[in-house]
Amino acid sequence: MTLSMYQSSVPVFVRLLKNLSAILDKGRAHAEAHKIAADVLPASRLIADMFPLSRQVQIACDHAKGAVARLAGVDVPKHEDDEQTIEELQARIAKTISFVETFTAAQIDGSEERDIVYPTSSRGDLKFKGVDYLLGFALPNFYFHVVTAYDILRANGVDIGKRDFLAG
Amino acid sequence: MTLSMYQSSVPVFVRLLKNLSAILDKGRAHAEAHKIAADVLPASRLIADMFPLSRQVQIACDHAKGAVARLAGVDVPKHEDDEQTIEELQARIAKTISFVETFTAAQIDGSEERDIVYPTSSRGDLKFKGVDYLLGFALPNFYFHVVTAYDILRANGVDIGKRDFLAG
Q1: pLDDT, tens digit (0-9, with 9 covering 90-100), for B66-123
Q2: For residues A116 and B64, what is the distance between their CA atoms, to the nearest angstrom?
Q3: Closest by alpha carbon to B53, among B79, B80, B85, B78?
Q4: Under a CB-based contact definition with an 8 Å cutoff, are residues A58 and A81 in contact?
Q5: What is the rounded CA–CA span in Å between residue A98 and residue A76?
Q6: Which of A38, A140, B95, B122 has its CA 20 to 30 A from that of A82?
Q7: What residue of A is the nearest CA neighbor of B5?
Q8: DSSP-assigned states of every residue in A41-84
Q9: How far is residue B62 CA from its own chain's centroid?
Q10: Please, what is the Cα angle at A12 between A154 and A140, to 5 degrees?
Q11: CA A70 to chain centre
């Protein structure tokens, strides 16, 4: 058995997204126990000029779905960024997991040298080889936003620990 | 070219550790500009019952050096956890990078099926195959602590952005 592009993407994204959803479950339970309105935690930030929890979750989802679609050479589906409650964020995650799970090893493996174009509004098109896109861009971005989502909930006193992040 | 265990470990750890050191540089500049004592940011936390910045950096370093050593089948060097200033944390990172960079592709590649033992104080020995250890344990742990170190500095108003984390 040798390491593959599929193994380094689909199961990694799916596991972490499931864990993020479970972490959000604990956030929702915390909000209910403390009578915090449903839209408060999703709007919480570590500092005023940083994205709130909702945006962290949306961007994490976008890097997961974008990575598998681009590596497989299919169109990236557009998901609207309109979630305002934890339940809505969990639906976004569930939709992303369903999409990521449709990809087979045959679609992703061998994409190391595939030319990837990642469009940005501020810096034009970023261009990568598949392996550099996955290891040097999609995965670090994904982890950045999943962990920051965790940290926002953790900083708000939600009863979560690293085991929730690593589970599975 | 196919994805390898080396490519998924050594250059990933080295790049992120270099970026973490550069992020800490900005933290040190921020502390100096605001006349914050050198031991304050390393002791900062997102919430009282979470590890401070210094411990986040130490654990991130430990997962990087532990991963490459275990995958290559060599002893993991012990680094004392006694850093109290950003300069000392940067020396810890530099020592870790030097160690990680000594490993060659020939030492790490082919470790997918290697039996890995990860000793813990609370849960005894955790056992993995090399690929599961790297993708499912060492890398997620590493990212968890690097991003949380970033988030602690960001929450303290240090002028850093995601580009500092992704650089290189």
Answers
A1: 999 999 999 999 999 999 999 999 999 999 999 999 999 999 999 999 999 999 999 9
A2: 28
A3: B85
A4: yes
A5: 14
A6: A140
A7: A3
A8: GGG--SSTTS--HHHHHHHHHHHHHHHHHHHHT-PPPP------
A9: 6
A10: 65
A11: 15
- β-partners of residue B116 are B128
B112-156 pLDDT per residue, tens: 999 999 999 999 999 999 999 999 999 999 999 999 999 999 999
Residues A8, B8: C-beta atoms closer than 8 Å = yes
Using CA atoms, how far apart are residues B9 and B137, in angstroms rounded to an integer?
Answer: 12
B1/A147 touch (CB, cutoff 8 Å), yes or no: no
Q: How far is CA B1 from CA A3, A144, B7, B18, in A?
A: 12, 27, 11, 26
CB atoms within 10 A of CB B125: 9
Note if the pTM is more than 0.95: yes
Tokens of A54: 């909702």
Which amino acid, one-letter code, is at B135? L
Q: How many CB atoms lie within 10 A of CB A30?
A: 18
Structure tokens at B165: 């984390």
Q: Among residues A148, A155, A140, A136, which one has the least CA distance to residue A20? A: A148
How close B83 comes to chain A (CA, Å)? 23
Residue to mutate among A3, A16, A139, with most B CBs inside 10 A, is: A3
Preferred mutation among A143, A150, A156 to probe B, highest tally of B CBs within 10 A = A143
Distance CA A20, CA A93 (A): 8
CA-nearest residue to B161 within chain A is A50
